[in-house]
Amino acid sequence: MNYADLFRVTLPETALEVAALVVLVVDLAFLRKAALKLRVTVAALLGVAGCGAALWALYTSSGTGFSFGGALLLAQYGYVGAVQSGILVLTAITLLLLIDETFTKHIGEFVAVMLMAATGGLLLAAAQDLMVIFIGLELLSLGLYIMTAFAKSSGKSAEAALKYYLFGGMSAAFLLFGFSYLYGLSGSTNLSEILGAIAQQGPSPLFYVAWILVIAGLGFKVAAVPFHLWAPDTYEGAPTPAAAFIASVSKVASFALLLTISGTMVMFHRDHNLSISEFERQIRLFFGTWHSLLDVLLVLAAISMIVGNLAALAQTSVRRLLAYSAIAHVGYILLGVGTHPQLYPPGTELISVGIGGIIDALLFRQAPVLYYILTYGLTIIGAFGVVSVVERATGSDKLDSFLGLHKRNPLLAAVLLVLFLSLAGIPPLVGFWAKFNLFAAVLGVSAGPVPFALVALAIAMSAVSLYYYLQVLKRAYVMPAIDESPIKAHPVTLAVLLLIAAAVVVLGCFPALLLRWIESFYLVM
Fold first, then answer.
1. Where are the alpha helices (DSSP H) in 264-347?
2. pLDDT the model gives residue 288
3. N or C: which end of the chain has fewer CB within 10 A?
């Protein structure tokens, strides 16, 4: 075992951990008696610097393929670099929005926990081994539980954290049971070896039980129905930066894990040096099994789209509205993750296509899913930022708190307009292209009435979502204000929100920019 190589591979994670320690030392040793605003600003900027250092480490490391005995993928391999970059950027944005917050005096600890949770997300994105997956998942989850409970003066925060922790503990138990069965069936904790053993031996009833248990555990992490019950209370009760982090970074890391599990088969040739004919035999056996397993994700996708959008219609709290909206967006993403890739017709010889064609057919289909996850994460952070400013000014996140926002703060209202219309999928904003690319990919990789029906359902539910987003915008722009006193936002907060809104517009006008960047990571494989 080469620990120098392991240190090089995990340099971004190391940079975040060092930054977390620096934040604690500076806040507790040097700024203990300073004003809270100064402490918040210094801690947030140090955290952003740590994210910048991790990004630098991510892009300066060299090499492709597996490391640490096949347990980790290097950042340049496939989707890993895109996901890890997204996690670091979204974490930095969340930290910048923290500058105007006053929900806790223990700001150094909060920033340190957030950076450690982001470290867990980075591990999840690169993990190819059950043990590493569980370590990364628990490091992320424990950080989220702590951040949810950080507003000690709020009863809702404590209640949300307790519910989140209890549901999280149950989901971890399901996940561990599933992992133990996978290990028992294959004798290995490496994903490639597990799926290789399944492809060679054929699935057993215990394998299907293991898959259901794993999906139950991961379904909790992404808040898919029926594992979503924690999400509305957590989004409502958690401090705004914690809720934004849960809605963005946690979702990006968790969906990256789902993509890892569903795309590992294409690594067989490189990892095991199989002949192309043997690779062809295994991949056909694999997809014969995998299609039936992916049907579970499609069922969860349909239920999540319906429940999330219909439940959002009844909400009077904008935080809870965003929570149910997030559940609906999980359904859209699961539709892309769970769609059966129609690799090649049974009569086609894979040897005539080549390994590069197989990788193109499987991995390039993940690009629209990654595009959706990253753009949604950016948009939802901005949405929570606007809600936070309004909530601090009015003392509430109810719909009526947004009455007359265009008069009280025109810039904030403009940001709200752009972000909510993007979440609804209105062109030419980036949310439209995220849905368009995802739905087009679903129809492009799979033929038949079921994918068409699911895409039609997704489009119909998107129309439903437009209604409840417009309920918020109607209060901001149409209905008269009860109180017309100005709502002030911290200059840094307002600047970050304006940059997020500008990015949503620019990426909507030039959608190929982000998509080409994501696809560029696959070209080095």
1. 268-272, 276-312, 318-338
2. 57
3. N
Tokens linked to 95: 């930290």
Q: 156-163 long-range CB contacts below 8 Å, 24 or more apart? A: 156/233, 156/236, 156/237, 157/237, 157/238, 157/239, 158/237, 159/233, 159/237, 160/233, 160/234, 160/236, 160/237, 160/238, 161/234, 161/237, 161/238, 163/229, 163/230, 163/233, 163/234
Task: State the Cα–Cα distance between residues 434 and 367, nearest whole angstrom.
Answer: 10
Would you put residue 190 in left (φ > 0), alpha (ψ -120 to 50) or beta? Answer: beta
pLDDT along the chain (525 residues), means of 10: 71 92 92 88 94 90 58 67 91 92 88 95 87 91 93 86 90 90 85 75 78 88 89 91 92 87 50 54 58 78 94 93 95 84 45 46 71 94 94 89 91 95 93 92 75 91 94 92 85 94 95 85 57
CB distance 309 to 230 below 8 Å: no
Tell me whether residue 2 is exposed, middle or buried, using C-beta atoms within 10 angstroms of its C-beta: 0 to 12, 13 to 18, 19 or more.
exposed
Beta bridge partners of 129: 190
Residue 118: the pLDDT is: 95
Instruction: Give the pLDDT score at 443.
Output: 83
Q: Are 125 and 256 in contact (CB under 8 A)?
A: yes
**Listed residue (135, 216, 137, 128) closest to 175, CA to CA:** 216
Structure tokens at 161: 């954290």
The total domain count for the chain is: 1
Burial class (CB in 10 A: 0-12, 13-18, 19+), 259: buried
Element (H, E) at 72: strand 72-73
Count each helix (H run) and each strand (E run) in the chain, helices first.
23, 2
At position 247, the amino acid (one-letter code) is A
User: 63: domain range?
Assistant: 3-524
Q: Among 303, 290, 295, which residue's Cα sits nearest to residue 261?
A: 290
66 bridge partner residues: 73
With residue 356 as reference, give the H or E element that holds it.
helix 354-363
463 alpha carbon, distance to own chain's centre: 23
What pLDDT is stored for residue 102 in this prediction? Answer: 82
Structure-block tokens of residue 212? 């259901």
Tokens of 341: 């890739």
> In whole angstroms, what is the distance from residue 71 CA to residue 73 CA?
7
Amino acid occupying residue 503? A
Residue 497: closest CA among 404, 403, 388: 388
